[in-house]
């Protein structure tokens, strides 16, 4: 039986397709425009060591009622829901339509199909102090003032939090088998460093490389937890197929260095000196209220939420990884590979003519 994947054309999605098809698992990608997207996805999957010809497509859109599917869905082994709109400054209505209503439509499909839902949320769902500061009631979505949460956290993060809480509730009520994978910020491929330019880590490396980071946001204890995309894809594939999985899997490498360490590790590959001074988060957040400054610094206030001092308990997820014969690759190696990849993309030999 096949596995339906939303967001298959995205950065994580194509790695998941490659991981599954490498193990001979057929995949049904829900794509908005299969006529133009499927051939590209198959090529990308082949290039990542998967089997592109095991990827089929169905047309669907998270923004359409009941996903606007263009045909019947075959019997499924599982559904992996990765599709989401990611952008800073996302208006609440848009973020909600795709990321919350779309996620609930996918959960309804999983229930109709009587199949496991692997739902991709984010590591901030485990930062309980942060959720409390935002005013989120984890036990009841309807008791939370979501307008306030969207104002405080921004459309992307707020919609991801709301989606997870509402889909959890739906799964509980409907006895839907659900595994929630909670990725940290995604880093490049541990072997090649491959990282899409829209990815938040790529943007951070870009800021460092372009000399936009004169100081380190926060304190020596602040960090941006990371996970390598290939390890994450392997974990998501196992979450879909393993007979027994924990209900939540935190995909986060607890050995990720502090932000200071991350920048120091990346800087030599980018031929830059790493910043050594710190800029308190409150000061940076205030500065970023100045019109034009976020764009100039390529840093949006809502992105700062992901850089905190909170540490996470990854014991259950690491134990699951071990049962699956998986381990996190060296995260410092992943940071170096990602930085090399960035640098190669910007070397004169690989620049596209204007
Ligand atoms: N990257 C990270 O650091 C990170 C960390 C934690 C969690 N996550 C979560 O992981 C998931 C995948 O992230 P990613 O980094 O792979 O994102 P990505 O590269 O931006 O991919 C997003 C995917 O969602 C699809 N999509 C967007 N709007 C859609 C719609 N209306 N209908 C159907 N599909 C739609 C896109 O399809 P098109 O190709 O048609 O645009 C694309 O395939 C997201 O849920 C994200 O919140 C990511």
Describe the structure.
This protein is α/β, with parallel strands linked by helices and 354 residues long. The protein has a domain at 2-194 and 226-254 and 313-332: NAD(P)-binding Rossmann-like Domain (Rossmann fold, 3-Layer(aba) Sandwich), CATH 3.40.50.720. It has 13 helices and eleven strands. It has helices at residues 11-22, 34-47, 92-113, 128-134, 146-153, 155-174, 200-209, 229-241, 259-266, 281-287, 293-297, 315-323, 331-345; strands at residues 2-6, 27-31, 55-59, 76-81, 116-120, 178-183, 185-187, 216-217, 226-228, 248-251, 278-279. It has a seven-stranded parallel β-sheet with strand order 3-2-1-4-5-6-10, with helices on both faces. Bound molecules: NADP nicotinamide-adenine-dinucleotide phosphate. NADP nicotinamide-adenine-dinucleotide phosphate binds next to helix 1 and strand 7.
């Amino acid at each position: 039986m096949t596995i339906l994947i939303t967001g298959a054309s995205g950065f994580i999605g194509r790695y998941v397709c490659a991981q599954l098809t490498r193990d001979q698992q057929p995949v049904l990608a829900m794509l908005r425009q299969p006529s133009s997207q499927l051939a590209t996805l198959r090529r990308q999957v082949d290039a990542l060591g998967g089997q592109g010809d095991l990827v089929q497509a169905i047309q669907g859109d998270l923004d359409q009622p009941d996903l606007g599917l263009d045909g019947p869905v075959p019997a499924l082994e599982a559904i992996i829901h990765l599709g989401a709109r990611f952008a800073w400054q996302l208006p609440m209505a848009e973020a909600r339509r795709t990321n919350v209503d779309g996620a609930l439509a996918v959960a309804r499909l999983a229930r109709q199909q009587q199949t496991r839902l692997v739902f991709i949320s984010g590591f901030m769902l485990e930062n309980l102090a942060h959720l409390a500061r935002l005013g989120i009631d984890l036990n009841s979505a309807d008791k939370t003032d979501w307008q306030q949460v969207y104002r405080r956290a921004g459309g992307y993060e707020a919609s991801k939090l709301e989606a997870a809480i509402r889909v959890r509730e739906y799964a509980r009520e409907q006895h839907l088998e659900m595994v929630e994978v909670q990725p940290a910020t995604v880093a490049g491929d541990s072997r090649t460093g491959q990282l899409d330019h829209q990815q938040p880590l790529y943007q951070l490396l870009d800021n460092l490389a372009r000399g936009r980071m004169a100081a380190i946001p926060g304190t020596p204890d602040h960090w941006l937890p990371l996970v390598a995309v290939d390890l994450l894809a392997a974990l998501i594939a196992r979450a879909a197929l393993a007979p027994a999985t924990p209900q939540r899997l935190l995909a986060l490498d607890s050995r990720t260095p502090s932000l200071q360490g991350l920048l120091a590790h990346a800087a030599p590959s980018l031929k830059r000196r790493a910043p050594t001074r710190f800029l308190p988060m409150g000061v940076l957040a205030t500065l970023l209220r100045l019109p034009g400054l976020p764009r100039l610094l390529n840093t949006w206030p809502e992105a700062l939420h992901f850089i905190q001092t909170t540490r996470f308990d990854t014991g259950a997820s690491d134990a699951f990884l071990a049962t699956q014969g998986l381990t996190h690759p060296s995260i410092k190696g992943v940071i170096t590979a990602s930085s090399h990849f960035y640098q190669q993309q910007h070397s004169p030999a690989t620049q596209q003519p204007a």
